[in-house]
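Notes from the 1:1 (GR / supervisor)

We went over the backlog. Supervisor wanted to see one worked example end to end before approving the batch request, so GR pasted a single chain during the call. The sequence is below; no edits were made to it. Supervisor asked that the structure be written out right there so they could see what the output format looks like.
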Amino acid sequence: MAKHGVDFCLISSAFNMRNEMILAQVKAHPDRFRGLCNWAEMLRKVQAGEGEFDIQQAADEIGGWLARPGFAGIGEAYLFPSHRDFKPLDQCLEDTC
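Structure output shown during the call:
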């Protein structure tokens, strides 16, 4: 980073990187990195067929990570239809407000 004049970076999940992994990098270099969290655990469970997507659980997961020092925002987040009553995120958010 220093070689190219980069002072600070945001780390977002990619290639199955989980929030714990991002936080470890932020803790190792707090003056250089901040993390962007996502609902990685919820996503893992849905993809493994261990549960269905739940907007409130996803929001709670993200809220828990954002409450920790080192996270600055929300990175990429994916939605996968896990049942026939799946609704788009914007509709889910409207229903919970």
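Supervisor's comment: The chain has a mean pLDDT of 82.
Batch request approved.
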